[in-house]
Amino acid sequence: MELRHIEPRHLLQGDTGDWEVIIGLEVHAQVSSESKLFSGAPATYGAGPNENVSLVDAAMPGMLPVINKYCVEQAVRTGLGLNAQIHLWSRFDRKNYFYPDLPQGYQISQFKDPIVGEGEIEVEVTPEDTITVGIERLHLEQDAGKSIHDISPSNSHVDLNRSGVALMEIVSKPEMRSADEAAAYFGKLRTIVRYLGTCDGNMDEGSMRADVNVSVRRPGGELGTRTETKNVNSLRYVRQVIDFEARRQIQVLENGGTIDQETLLFDVKTGETRTMRSKEDAHDYRYFPDPDLLPLVIEQSWVDEIKAGLPELPDVKKKRFSSEYGLSAYDASVLSMERDKADFFETVAKGRDGKLASNWVTTELFGALNKENLEIGQSPVSAGHLGKLIDLISDDTISGRIAKDVFEIMFETGDDPAKIVEERGLKQVTDTGAIEAAIDKIIADNPEQVAQVKEKPKTFGWFVGQVMKSTGGKANPKAVNEILKKKLGV
Amino acid sequence: MTKIENHTLSSLRDALKNKDLSSTEATQAYLSRIENASSLNSFITLTADKALDMAKASDAKLTKGEGGDLEGIPLGIKDLFCTKDVLTTAGSHILDGFKPGYESSVTSNLFNDGAVMLGKLNLDEFAMGSSNETSFYGPVISPWRRNGDTTKITPGGSSGGSASAVSAALCAGATATDTGGSIRQPAAFTGTVGIKPTYGRCSRWGTVAFASSLDQAGPITRTVRDGAIMLKSMAGYDPKDSTSINQAVPDYEAVLGQSVKGLKIGIPKEYRIDGMPAKIEDLWSKGIEWLKDAGCEIVDISLPLTKYALPVYYIVAPAEASSNLARYDGVKYGFRADGDLPIDELYEQTRAQGFGDEVKRRIMIGTYVLSAGYYDAYYLRAQKVRKKIFDEFHDAFKAVDLILTPSAPSAAFGLGEKSGDPVSMYLNDIFTVTANLAGLPGMSVPAGLDEQGLPLGLQLIARPLDEETMLKGGYVLEKAANFKARPEDWWI
Amino acid sequence: MSVDKKTAEKVARLARLAIPQDRLEPLADEINGILGWIEQLNEVDVDGVKAMASTVDMSLPLRDDKVADGPTGGGQPDNIVANAPQTEENFFVVPKVVD
Q: ipTM of this complex > 0.85?
């Protein structure tokens, strides 16, 4: 593979000098389809043993694959979402190897002619650090079944429920240079597929998992031998694998050893990688075009149609949030990361002050949701109500401070903010007569402070506080300020 | 009443319709012939009870004047077609005890049309062979013998059981499959008609796979008409097979007897190979004359890549087979080697004990030609040569309507006479394998006997999906050859 | 290209076929006999020729994303394991596999 020139960054210090970590990810994302890639068995998770298995998935003699159109469409959608080239002519190959969870003795995959070619995505590693990661390819393939080793001490039990489930394998270029970059990339892929609805991104159920390729080299030097750690299913584990592997490889090399090109497993208990014992022999997968299937030829018009139906993707949305609502890069990024959050924000922000809306959504709402461990979809405060609350602030019905109290009540009760304000009498006092009366009383009661305020302008705040206190916080702060200034002559 | 052995499928159909006899009677008559013919070893499994149940159901329909095109007609089914709840072996030890929970599309089509299944017919293991000697269930014997000689003769392969049973009148017709000639060569060896339709005409769903890009089902029957009737029922679009062609199946029987006047018949000079018996040359010339007499125009053509067809086949077919047969691992069905073995040894022992020598040889070749470093030199090159052969046929068919060749380079041989040398065995398919590589329909029609009294066949190859023209031509050849010879019932 | 005993052993291993040591040499010879005959393909000029994809002149048919009934659908665990040499509660059972 051609390696794009990337300036060395995020170097690791070894005993003998600096090292650069080179990372590539092969992410398997399960297509959110009803049925499997080549059979009509359900692709759902969590059924009884061999319950979701057709005769095709169990590789009964004479059974034949027929491809699921929806899965092809999702591969194209995802490819478009990765800004990648869509191949109108692609083909399925057989990858031959023996394993009990592989009933056919081969996996149907796309080796030579994948449906999606090169692309690239932007990845925000931190709000200040955005990198571009190249996509090598995306192809469709079958998932394998599952061997369960802990039912009996002497046997393994094979369940083929996952056998034949459609996966998109998304292969990155080896363009990541730190665990943070790799985790951010993996997270970004998850964001994209969830946006597109092509994969549910559920890592706990194995809907998304990564094979992590790691090698180290001297900065800008010759590429090192890489290891591949299989089936890593969380961002945290991806980080751990890379940190562990990079350190391990550096240590081996600095001690004069060599790295074996091998397949590893990650032990979540120890946080270490170990060699996979079962697949030790030299792999020779004998790929060849699957003669049960014809070349997959799709029309450009179909691709165009799919493209036209794509939702606005996070990168575009982020930029728009910045320009349209004047949000900071950070807020725009936080709000565009997940589609439902972005939609919520937009409903709140539509026709209102974008920054104010962003503050309320990211600080107050997300803070409250986080505290209660709720998803945006479970928010007791609807986007409509939050918008109304902002309106109440903007038209001076309530003050920003009161609004926070109102929000708390909204979060508890789910009530309309106008109703809360009305019922609890929280309306801001804008009647200057009433405010003037309150101020006059305070001036009259506190001659010492009045005398001081001209020398110590800082005590002005004390007056404001007293006015607010006497009006139960409802006085319009702007009016209070103006009248106070006039009356005190400051 | 006509004796069952003198019925063709079509005459039996008419007799059943006219209630000259019942399906139960026909079925019983065949069953008793089969019992007497055990020395031919043409059946692996006899399904007498099922056959009689099916016959009874057919009789109920026939009595009411109802039923499908094959109502009540007893057939033999090559044991490569999965039959629901009936042992299906593919002639292999590795499928010991395998009773599929499903019915192949081809047998479903036949049964939907009313056919009765007598049993499962012997074959070369996984259809790999040209003499039926690779079957785990032992070789099939042809009902034919050389004049004045009791040497056991092969019915050919891999559909040896189908050819032997039809030729010995143990069934009205039989299903067969053809990957490199496995329908046409046994048909030629046994004086029967064998039709391999266009690739994609018959669904492969539920038929044990040998080489997916070449496998095609078809009938072996007594007459061209019988073949046309059976093929119509077997063929048809099947959405469960991604290579199935979505086109209506014509009434093949309707074209029989139509004029072939003006048809251009190509005679490829490359099929005149060294060492071909004079009798086969003669018969080929006769075939040319018969078609000429019927008004066809004879065109000499050249298919220079013919000699490369078999080497291409012996890369492509084993490559596909090595992968198709990976599923036989002792985990999901069939035979599993004894012993408390670790998983990889379990695989190795199961497959070593479960497969016979020829199957293992082909798996080894197929694995080798696909392995790293050899793929380009063997597999990829073979698929390129295959494309050139395909193009060569398509070019030829711009100038001709049918191609006439001998079906096989020799008459049937004695058991064991060729089993020592794989390559000489493979050469049996030299004339038939081209149609598989190019996906074309081909058929063998009995045309005469050699000096020793063994049948010889002529092959017609047609354009893709043009089985009708091929059958018209076959029917003309059949009429002209007037092949009436029958093997003696020496086995009873 | 010719297959030696070691290659035969490697290929047998890839194909999961236990071949006794004393059978490897003869098997390699048989394979060489066949490959030798096959090598006449090298005479054919294949420059610029696209490898055969399929004899059927059509694109891969696509099926709708629907859960099917019958053989190509699920919900038939008994049928799935019915022919298996060893099963337990609808699982296939194999000797212990180590990852």
A: yes
